[in-house]
Structure formats: structure tokens, C-alpha cells
Request: fold
Amino acid sequence: MRIFYAIILLSFAFSIDAVTIGNQVFSDTDFFSKYGRSEWENSDEKQKDRMLKDYIKREACAIEAKSLGFMNDPNIAVKLRDRSNMVMVNSVYEELVARPLISEETLSKTRLHIKVEIDLSHILVGFEKSRLQKPPKRTKDEAFLLAQNIKTKLSNGQDFSALAKKYSDDPSAPNNGGSLGWIGWGRTDGAFQEATFRLKVGEVSDPILTNYGYHVVIIIAKRPSEHSNLTGEALASVVYNASRGTVSPFLKKAAAEFDSLNLSNASVRYNDYAIAKIVALIDKEKERKRVAGQYKVDLVSLFESSGNIGVVCVYNNRGIGIKWFAQKLRSSPSSRHPNLDSVDNVMAAFNIIILQDIALTLGQKENINNKAVYKNKVDAMENSLLYDTYLKWLVNSAPLPDSLQVKAYYNENKNKKYKDPIKALVREIKVLDRALADSLLLEIQFGFDFEEAAVLFSKTSPSRGGLMSPFAEGKYNNLGEIAFSLQAGEISSVIENLDRSYSIIRLEKMLPEQYSKLNNVYSRIESVLTRLSQNDAKSNGVEGLFKKHQIVINKGFFNGETVEAD
Reply:
């Protein structure tokens, strides 16, 4: 595969072109939406190369899928619609429930600090009721005094790492000397980050209280974060995501209040008689499935084929029937369908469906569909679906092997794969008592027929006179070793087995090496050749895109070198 590299000067203030595929340009912002900037920066050249090629492969496959008209496929269109709707529902709850909970003060602090990362070390002084896995036996006041004392030692020039190893209750301190590495805003406890991000390089903090104890922190260095070049909506999105953690404890209650208000505004009222009929219908189908040895009820098919249940509920002053709910359920995988085993569970599940429908209306009303964050999520979802669909299309287009190919593969591989080794054909008398085994061996030695003894006493296939399936050398432990030491017709002594049973065996004969018949392995070979053909089709199809589309990588973005590579 030939890729052409071009040098473009890097700019830390603006987004830069990273990759061009055909006539489509992808910026570093596009790339880092798939791979985090810190992940990229911490990778070696080979890892970066793999990431970049994977990104190009996925984007090229999506471009090719669009050019082949996949977007016009009704099945793909339905999947895109359903998945876009779920993105919209999630976006509505983010915009209308989570976002209003975040104070402007929190957003302002995040905007101030989000473009910087700090490299810091800390000494943690825990106390009895702190959230450490094994908190030390000291009071909170004692912990504070110790933390103050540690800061004094640091101010007098003592080594931070040595003090961390001696005093810190962070379990990793003995190995890393208290280093926490590079940390960005929004990744640590609120009080901890507010105190640390105000410090200057080389400055030691006063004791900082968190749920884990008191921290004494020193700032080693500062640098631009992976968000340093963001502006506009991209920056606003990162600021929001970094601030969202501050309101996580309040989201469940806020979402419940939001849902209750929306159900009330939509005047949702259920028909108790219809709901009871639905529960009875599901119970009846479950019993029918149970009798048939099946347990999963297909709610969509059941609802669509149900008789006249009547109006299930009134929603926005219109009557809604069971088939409306069936249509809504169809858009989600059956594995995610709710367990409707009671009136309350049916109503709760139907409420969720109605709330999702309300959220879609709100999303359009609030113009969320035109926000960059929503569009980016939909684009990423669309590309992922097109990539997966294109690979499946390549696999399904692979030619199936014919009989000549199967026969040729058999002939080429029969010595290695389809040749049965020498096998022993053995009869076994297997019993659970050593005394019985000894007695039977003596009887056989005095003329008692081996097969008759096996029919009467053996735990191994008595109806077949103890005849075992032929086996190759290396099976059945001690019994197998003895079998391969016997001559045809020879009888062994009593063999003690690993399961504490006892066996007497007679070697009937050794079966010579022989080839498996083609008819017996035909299906296996056909499956192997089909997989090989599908893998080739997928590999060649993807590699072909690198040849079909001219791919230009900004080498300044990649590693600052000018290279033209095959």
C-alpha cells in the first residue's frame, strides 16, 4: 500500500489537517475524537502508525460504503434512524437535565483550567474514617497535624520522594515516591483539583482535605493539555464533559422529576383493563414457550399479532394501542426488551417508551439536532455502522468453494490433517472393586469367555461385550500405554485407573494408519475454505481502498518527518 506524506506546519492555536482520503480532509480534531490526544502522545511510532492506519481504514470503508449506495439501503436507513433517535434521547437528557444543574461558576473554573495539565506528586495522610481501603489508626486532627509537619520538613529542604515513601498512606507511594503523573482538570476530586491547579511550579501546598485524607502536593511541571487548541463548540463540549462529574449525585433525582413533569404535561393515562389483558397475554405466551422448551418471548411479534386489546393509554390526547408500542420496541434489540411480568412493570416499560418519544419531540423543539455535539455523535455512529456493514458486504461477496477446490485442499493436506494414526481396538472389563477384578482375571485365565464376562460385569459398553471406540496412542493414561504394549488377542493384568476403578483389557487388533474419506471431511474442508475466502475478500477489499483513494498524511502531525512509504 502506498501512502503519500506531506509536511504542513503545526499550529497549536488552530485545528490542522491530519489525513486526506481522496477529496475528504480529516483534521486532528476528527482524529482525536477517536483516539485521545494523550493516548497518541504516549504511544511509540509503531503504535501511532497502527492507530493512524486503523483510522484511515475505518474512514475509507465508510466513504466507500456511501459511494456504493449503502445509505439508500432500507435496512441501513432504519438502523441509522433508530440509532440517531437514541443519540437524540441521550442528548436531550444531557441538555435539559444534566446541563442546567452545572453552575456557571463550575463552567468558568473549568474553562480557566481545561487547557493545562499538571505533573504533581502528593503525600497522603489518612485517618480512621477516611475512604482508604485500610485507613490508619489516627484521628482527623492528628492527620492534619502530621500533614502540617510534613510540609514544614519539605520547606526545610527534605526530599519529597523520601518523605512520601516514609509517611504517605497511598499504597503506590513506596514504588513511585508519591508521583501522580500528568493530571488534567476534571479527573480528580473537586477540592483537590481546585487547590492544586492554583499552585505554581515547585510550590508545595497546604494540607488539602478530601475523602481520602489530607494531601500535601508539589507541582513538578505544567504543559498544554490535549484540549489546548480547542475553540468554540468543541471547547464548550469538553468544558461541559469535564464539569459534569460535579452533578452526578443529583442526576437521578433530576431525571425522575423531568420524567414526571413530561408525563404529566402529556396527560398520560393508562387503561387498567387493557394493561391487565397484556399481562395475561404475556403469561400465556410464556407458558406456551415453556412447554416447547423455549423461554424468550418475542414481545414485538406477540404485540403485533394480538387481537383487539383496545386503547392501552391516552397520550397527548390521543389513544395509543398495543401495536404502537410494538413499533417502538422494534427499534431496540430484543436483548434489551423489558421483563413485563406484572402490571407495574408493563406500565413502567411503556412510560419509558413514551418518554423517549417525548424526548425526540423536545430535541427538535430545542434545536438539539443542529448542535455540533449531537452531529458529531451521529456522524461517529453512522461511520461505525457503515464500516461494519461494508466489512460484512465484503465477507458476503466472497466466492464459495466448489468441489474441485475442496478435493484439491484435501489432497494437499491429507497427510498432515486427514490421516488417522495407528489405533488400538480394545475390549474392556471395568469394575469398581479390586477383589472382583482379580477374581474375573483368574476366571478368564481358566477359560471363562472374555466377552461374556464383559457383558455380565463391565461398566464399559456391556451390550457390546466391553468394546471400546478405537483410540490412538497417548489416550487413557496407563490403560492406553498397556494397550499399545499388547499383542493381538493378549489380555492384560488388572489395571488401576485414575478414577479408582479397575480394568482388564484385551487387544483385539491394531488398526493401521488410514486416510479419512473425503466425504467424511468434506463439510469441514468447505468451512475452512469459506473462512479463507472471506478473510481474503475482507483483506483485499480494505487494502484495495488504499490503492483506490489517494491518501495523504500530514507528516508534521504524525512525527515531523518527510517520508514516502509503501
